Amino acid sequence: MTSPRRTFAIISHPDAGKTTLTEKLLYFGGAIHLAGEVKARGQNRRARSDWMKIEQQRGISVTSSVMTFEKDGVTFNLLDTPGHEDFSEDTYRTLTAVDSAVMVIDAARGIEAQTRKLFEVCRLRSVPIITFINKVDREGRPPFELLDEIADILALDVAPMSWPVGMGGLFEGILDLTTGKVSRPEGDSRAFHGKVDDAPTLPAEIAEEIELAQAGYAEFDGEAYRNGDLTPVYFGSALKDFGVAELIDALSRHAPPPRPQPAEPAPVSPENKEVTGFVFKVQANMDPQHRDRIAFMRLCSGTFKRGMKLTPTGHGKPIAVHSPILFFAQNREVADEAFPGDIIGIPNHGTLRVGDTLSERADVRFTGLPNFAPEILRRVALKDPTKTKQLRKALDDMAEEGVTQVFYPEIGSNWIIGVVGQLQLDVLLSRLDAEYKVAAGLEPAPFDTARWITAEDPADLKAFMDLNRSAMAKDRDDNPVFLAKSAWEVGYVADRYPKVRFLATRER
């Protein structure tokens, strides 16, 4: 029996329309009741998934969020991810928790750098992708050019499922290639209000385009899609409501239900009776009034019941999960039970961390959630020295979430933070001020990059650390870290110490 669960992420380059599409999926799925909340006044004008202060100020998503909704007997778990490349770590970890993805492409810009990076992450995990080419009601590139670009750059077969009848000023609707019906724009806004032309007369050039497309591109093949070899492509306009209902229908009919998850000693099937799951994200202060800390857990097998005890790999002591949460962006409700594919939130006070496996019997560990070596290092300078304790708490919290990494040098008292992208530094300072009431600045660090170090013989590791003490630090888990002035220095030192391994990634 196929599970009525669809757990998927939306990936895109910034400004492709991902947040608008997210909101319309929620609206069409019945999860919100006001169309166009992005345009409403006050708090409602924020997309429901962008709740953090800096997100609202800048109009970008900087943290992954989870939204659950139901339609026609299917439960959808939608994971919204940051589009900006500076938050690629958060996005990567989120993609470990989904079974499929929707890739949003701007019809005028085609595939952009971040889209390609995120696609490669999906390919590593064989995550099947549905493509949504957005903004066809505006001037854009020809459909053939967009489809060929997807096929060439991403090395995917493409199967067009719909086709734009004109674009930009000539836009006259979207043709469903399966039914032959056209969804027509109406009114001054030229939006879709439900008008469907059952027997459309198409302009000769559009009819010719469709004939060429159906002859030249692959037919949809469910197995090829689920294997990650083919992407069905839908054209539409999230802002004007074209193609959104079809996208939900495609996810319901074609997207895979919960899949087996990579683990040791063996992959975990969703059919397993024991409850297992892994934490792919920790978020502090979703409710600033309560200083809360929520671990997002992807349930992989078994039927979770409220109050049951699960053992985290982190410390091995069973914890009772009394108040599990189902999410609707920042809103939440207590979950009495959950099933494989569901994302539940577990309130805790620092006991759960990203990468932790939770299980009934503590005999399994999920794999594949890495830390990445930071590309930018900075010292944190407190403006009020009496706030040292609050700063350490804040940095530990945000390191636990994966926003930053914190390194404590062996020599000197200035803590060093590491990030993958510049925008993460802005988020750090914004959250220090807004959530922890800590005023701080950032100063250049004498180092440029960091590597975790390890060696087969502990004596070799100790000898290296003793000789390079001024460049040594510990991360928040007390793992030894070598701080280097440049990537060249990393290579030079690695050549000099062949018995020591310098790691750019470390599995959590």
Structural write-up:
- This protein is an alpha+beta fold and about 500 residues long.
- The chain has three domains: about 10-70 and about 85-255, 3-Layer(aba) Sandwich (Rossmann fold), CATH 3.40.50; about 265-365, Rossmann fold (3-Layer(aba) Sandwich); about 370-505, Peptide chain release factor 3, domain III (Alpha-Beta Plaits), CATH 3.30.70.3280.
- The chain contains twelve helices and 33 strands.
- The strands form eight sheets. Strands 28-25-27-26-30-31-29-32 form an eight-stranded antiparallel beta sheet. The chain has a seven-stranded mixed beta sheet with strand order 2-3-1-4-5-11-6, with helices on both faces.
- Helix 1 packs across helix 8 (about 245-255).
- The longest helix has 15 residues, at about 420-435.
- The radius of gyration is 24 Å and the shape is globular.
Shape: globular
Largest sheet: 8 strands, antiparallel
If classified by CATH, what would the architecture of the largest domain be?
A: 3-Layer(aba) Sandwich
Instruction: State which percent range the strand residues make up.
Output: 25-35%
What is the residue-mean pLDDT, rounded to a whole number?
Answer: 84
From the alpha-carbon coordinates, what is the Rg to the nearest angstrom?
Answer: 24 Å
Strands side by side in the biggest sheet: 28-25-27-26-30-31-29-32
Helical element count?
12
**What top-tier CATH class of the largest domain fits best?**
Alpha Beta
What is the CATH T-level topology of the largest domain?
Rossmann fold
The proportion of residues forming helix, as a percent range, comes to: 25-40%
N-C termini distance: 34 Å
Give me the count of strands.
33
- As for the number of domains, it is 3
Name the structural class. alpha+beta
